[in-house]
Amino acid sequence: MTHGLNGRSILVTGAGGGIGGQIVAQLVQAGAEVIAAGQSPAEIEEVCRLHNIRGIAFDVADEDGVREALGGLDLWGLVNCAGYGGQVAPLTSASTDMFDRVMAANARGTLLTTKYAAQSMIEAGRGGAIVNVSSQAALVALDGHISYGASKAAVDSITRVAALELGRHNIRVNSVNPTVVMTKMSASYWARPEIADPFLAAMPLGRWATEPEIAAPVVFLLSEGASMITGVSLPVDGGYTIR
Fold first, then answer.
1. Is residue 217 within a helix (H) or strand (E), and if so which, with residue range?
2. Does residue 218 lie within any of the structural domains?
3. Whole-structure pTM value
4. Which of 84, 115, 116, 152 is catalytic?
5. CATH at residue 160
6. Which domain holds residue 172?
7. Which of 116, 148, 184, 189 is catalytic?
């Protein structure tokens, strides 16, 4: 299947991470002109070198920085993959400072990059597509994920409203909602047997996701194959959220 992405300029935030880097790799393979974004030049240096692509650095939660970074870009597409997991903590001891940090990175960041990318896309008049990387935590309750879950539920809401408002400009907006990808960062919590065993037992496919398995649906939702799909939150979760 051809993706119809040849030569299309697509910005990927969080491009230096595992999932973000894999999204970049698959988009490059599909022929897109990818711009890798990270909070600092060091975060995206390797992915830019590996794929010989352009990189830009900005904080997704800083409106002035986002406006300046995206103002001159001629974009067809956007992937909002930048995010912050915060900490796993019960509601009764949750830090409001941590809540604010998680919401700023995930919800505010998605809003700002979508806001300024959409302005560029509308001005260009070519239509386009936006995909937000959300989480299964937006769809079902997970112990200790009060801040993260709230932030990703906000991402899904931003997705739906953006799809409604931007559809008239032929710009589609969707989100993917991954389950756990076992990285070094996630292993500190999810690899603990008392957490992992019941979680995987409740998942029909019974295993952790991989970065390529999350990236592939992102590329599909950007592609011509998804040309009539907008406003959806697509679980990529091995069936976990059907419980």
1. helix 211-222
2. yes
3. 0.96
4. 152
5. 3.40.50.720
6. 9-228
7. 148
